[in-house]
Amino acid sequence: MSFMAPLLDAEIIAIGTELLIGGRSDSNSLFLADELGRLGIAVRFKSVVGDERQDIVTAIQTAVKRAQVIVMTGGLGPTVDDCTREAVAYATGHRLGRRKEALEGMTARLLQWGRIPNRAQLRQAMIPSGATVLKNPIGSAPGFCLTWKKALIVSLPGVPREMEEMVRQEVVPLLRAGTKSSGRLPRSPIVRQVFHTFGLAESDVDAKLKGLIPNGAPVDLGLLASPMGVLVSLTTKGNQSVSEKNRDLLQKLVHDVRSRLSDWLFAEGRDTMEEVVGRELTKRGLMLAIAESCTGGLIGHRLTQVAGSSAYVDRGAVCYSNQAKTEMLGVPTELIARHGAVSKEVAASMACGIRERAHVSVGLSVTGIAGPGGGTETKPVGLVYIGLDDGTGRPITREFRFHGDRNVIKQRSSQAALDFLRRWMLDQVPT
Asked: For the residues of 274-314, what is the DSSP string, one character each?
C-alpha cells in the first residue's frame, strides 16, 4: 500500500451534525493527533462536517490536496444519516458492496450481545470496493481504509472507545507497515509532553510559564483550559530529525515546567486526577468514604471508574436533602439551621459522619449550590464547601467559588474535592 510522501501530513475529518450544533464535543481529534505524532505524522488540518453526503465528499476532495493521511471519524452507524461509506465511495469512484469479513465480524459481535442483525445494521457491512476492512474489537461497526490520489483514507467509528482501540490495533500497525514499504521515512516522532494543573486560571498558568521557551527553540508551548483544570503541553515542531541538543532542551523545559507549576501540577501524560488520588490512597493504605450533595455522586463515579478502586473506596452516599444529611450522616438539624446546608460547618460534619459510619480512614464531603437557581447574595450559585475528616478531631474544610453552568460547577467541584484530598495526602493543603 503505497501512500507515503517525503514528509507526512495528516488531516482529521470529524463527521456528525451534533458536532456543529453543540450537542457533543469532538474528543477524538486530540487522541488522534497524539497517536499520529508518535509516528512522526503531523496533523496539519482538521475539518468538522455534518451528516450531509456532499459536505463529506467536499471535505475528502479538499483533504487529499494537502495531506497524505486522512483520518475520518463518525458516520459509520446503521441509521440513515450515517453516510460516510457512501460519501467515500462517491468521492473516490468506488462501488459499495457488502463484504463478507465485515458482515461476519458485525454479526458475531451482535450475537455476543444477544441480538440478531436487522436490516439497518446490515448497512454497516457495506464497504467501498478496493478498501481494506478494519476490525472493530469493541463495537459492531467496522472501519475501512483505501488509497486515493496517493493519500491514505482511514474511516473509523465516532465512538471514542471504539475508535481508540481500532487506532491502536489496526491503524498504527498499518501506518508503520506503509512507512517501511514506501522506503521513505516520516518526520522523527513528534514529542509531546503534557502536564495537568488544577487551581490556577489559564492566565495565571501563562504568567508562571512566561519566558519559558527560548526564542527560536523548536518547541511549542500550548495551554488548554477546561473545568478539570489547565492542560499544558510542550510539543516539538516535527523536524525531520531531533538532535541531541533539542532533546536536552526539551528535558530542561520539562524540568522547568515542573518547578514553576509546583504543587498546582497534579499529573503528567494521560494520568487523570482520580488515578493519581487512587495511587496515593493505595500507597498510604487509606480507605475512603464520600458524602456528596451538589455533585450527586460524581466523585464516587470518577474514583470507581479506575480498575482496582475497591482497594481504597469503601462507599459513597448522595445526601442531597437536609433530611438525608441528618438521617444518613448525623449532621445536627440545629447546625443546618444555624449555618445553612451550604457551609463549612456542615461540610465538616458530613465528612465526619460518613467516616464514622463507614469505619474508614478518611471521610470526604462536598456541599454547594450548582445552580442555576438557589443562590442568594451571601451564598451565590457556585459557592462550594469541601470537607475532610481523618479521625483526629480536627476536620478541615475549604471554600470555593466556581463559575459556569450547572454541569461545569459539578465537574469543577468534583475535581476540587479530589485535588483537596490529594493535597492533604501530600501535606500541600493551602492555609
From this structure: HHHHHHHHHHHT--EEEEESTTTTHHHHHHHTSTTGGGTEE
